[in-house]
Amino acid sequence: FLDRQTARIDALITKKTRFIELLKEKRQALITHAVTKGLDPNVKMKDSGVEWIGEVPEHWSIVPLKIIAEIVNGATPDSKNTAYWDGDIAWYTPADIDNTVIKPLSIPQRQITEAGLASCSARLTPAGSIVISTRAPVGSIGVTTTISTTNQGCRSITPVPGMPSMLLASILAAARSELAQRSNGTTFQELSAESLRALRIPLPPIDERLSISSALDRQTARIDHIIEKTQRSIDLLRERRSALITAAVTGKIDLRGSL
């Protein structure tokens, strides 16, 4: 009885899990297309001269990341000094960033004090900055909602006025494979600040940046909503599976007619 019932539930979970994977692939493909090709399917294209970008609309520019954003390194206060920890300054590490989707960052696992900030080379960056993990793993991306700083496993990227944070975050997400190739190291892969600053990215005119950002917000929100609903159904199926097993092995289900 349990073999049959759990097999049915497991098959449903497998199908729904695969559906989420496909939705995430679709989401990434949508982002990559929007930030490298734009929204107009009839626009004239040109070769960007950058392998990971390919062709772009002919009126777009290709610029190093450092032209449109300030990139700030992170640092860690002395972990043994209690005066540096449990403060009210958000201090992000790679563990605080979702490595599958871009989303606003929540409260980090640890926060530091003003004394902790002053004790190391970490710097504060404003809300709306992009935090990207540059080691273990490379390329997890989130956007801050408050003034914050990071450890040395991340870097903060503050875009210039006129460059929407989520659009720049989406461009960086599209460049994940390129960022991974730029990483090096023996113990673990790490992306240097210099390589990040030199990353060449597509740059639409300012009015087009806003329209692309708005379109991506709408389209990814729809996909994220479906992913969230599907994940909830998976969680409910797992709960049902566990409850079924418990009920069967404790005699709460009469199985005499089902064998």
Question: Could you explain the architecture of this structure?
Answer:
- This protein has seven helices and twelve strands.
- The relative contact order is 0.17.
- The termini are close together.
- By secondary structure, it is an alpha+beta fold.
- Helix 1 packs across helix 4 and helix 1 runs antiparallel to helix 7.
- The strands form four sheets. A five-stranded mixed sheet has the order 4-11-8-9-6.
- It is globular, with a radius of gyration of 23 Å.
Give the averaged pLDDT, no decimals: 94
Strands ordered across the widest β-sheet: 4-11-8-9-6
How far do the termini sit from each other? 7 Å
Please summarize the sheet with the most strands: 5 strands, mixed
Silhouette: globular
Question: What is the N-to-C order of secondary-structure elements (H for helix, E for strand)?
Answer: HEEEHEEEEHEEEEHHHEH
| Helical stretch tally | 7
**What is the radius of gyration?**
23 Å
Structural class: alpha+beta
Poorly predicted residue ranges: none
Strand percentage lies at 15-25%
